[in-house]
Amino acid sequence: MAALYPGELRVWTTKFDYTTIVFADHFNTTQDELTALLRTVGLTPQIARNDPGSTPASLRPIVDWLSRSPSADLDHALDLIENSDGKTFAALLSEINILWPDWGGES
């Protein structure tokens, strides 16, 4: 049986321990759906290659810079963002400008 995803979602039946005979087809169907999902999502689903249009204009330079950053800088930048509770955008941008003066954005 071929995968239904991404055209539609398969309806699954619940299997019960010691009362349901689980045939190889049950797992093979699951495997087909998982393979279809992985092919659709790809290897880097968390990285948007193009702005999907939801990023505010003021953040676009930061998002673009993050997408080009080496992983070490990216890890440091993500730590900075995660620990930015209560900071204004201007304060966060000021910290970025101090840490990475050549990042390409504006103050």
UniProtKB/TrEMBL annotation:
<protein>
    <submittedName>
        <fullName>Uncharacterized protein</fullName>
    </submittedName>
</protein>
